[in-house]
Design brief:
Elements (H helix, E strand, L loop, with lengths): L2 E5 L1 H6 L6 H12 L3 E6 H8 L3 H4 L10 E4 L3 H12 L8 H12 L4 E3 L9 H13 L7 E2 L10
Parallel strand pairs: 1-2, 1-4, 2-3, 4-5
Helix pairs in contact: 5-6
Length: about 150
């Protein structure tokens, strides 16, 4: 079974960012070779509307069967709100919390992000998982695209 990787907006943007380009391109190569499936949300698509055209059109360059689409639900909104009320992050990080809740509730294998401040951050990850476990959800794996690239032997 293919690894299901939830990607947030920073991964799409990272494809064009000099600092993150190499690892992000390698992760997209895995998608192209049909080794992984990207889980994308309506929230991601909404955020991409505001991005430059070359960024917002990136996902259209790949076959649609490489993606699994998930939608924001009340359960996801409630879980994201709980991350904030438990002070894992502040209110300004609501969209980040919704990405994490989308990935958690849809039981992806891993969430990929380049957002080190609010998402790929050990203390924050512990906080998200603490809330998840108390509410009966599974732990969420959160990694950078660099950690999801196959380097061979």
């Amino acid at each position: 079974m293919k690894q299901r990787i939830y990607i947030d907006t920073s991964v799409v943007g990272g494809f064009f960012d000099e600092e993150f380009k190499e690892a992000t391109h390698q992760l997209f190569e895995r998608l192209k070779r049909d080794e992984v499936r990207f889980v994308i949300s309506d929230l991601l698509e909404l955020e991409l509307i505001q991005a430059p055209k070359h960024v917002s059109n990136l996902l259209l360059e790949y076959p649609s069967d490489r993606f699994e689409r998930v939608e924001l639900t009340q359960e996801i909104i409630d879980l994201a709100d709980k991350y904030i009320s438990e002070k894992v992050v502040g209110k300004t990080s609501l969209e980040d919390c919704r990405h994490i809740a989308l990935a958690t509730i849809n039981r992806v294998d891993v969430l990929a992000s380049w957002n080190f401040k609010h998402i790929v951050n050990l203390e924050r990850i512990k906080g998200y998982n603490s809330v998840n476990l108390r509410l009966g959800y599974a732990n969420i794996e959160i990694r950078t695209p660099q950690e999801l690239v196959n380097y061979g032997d």
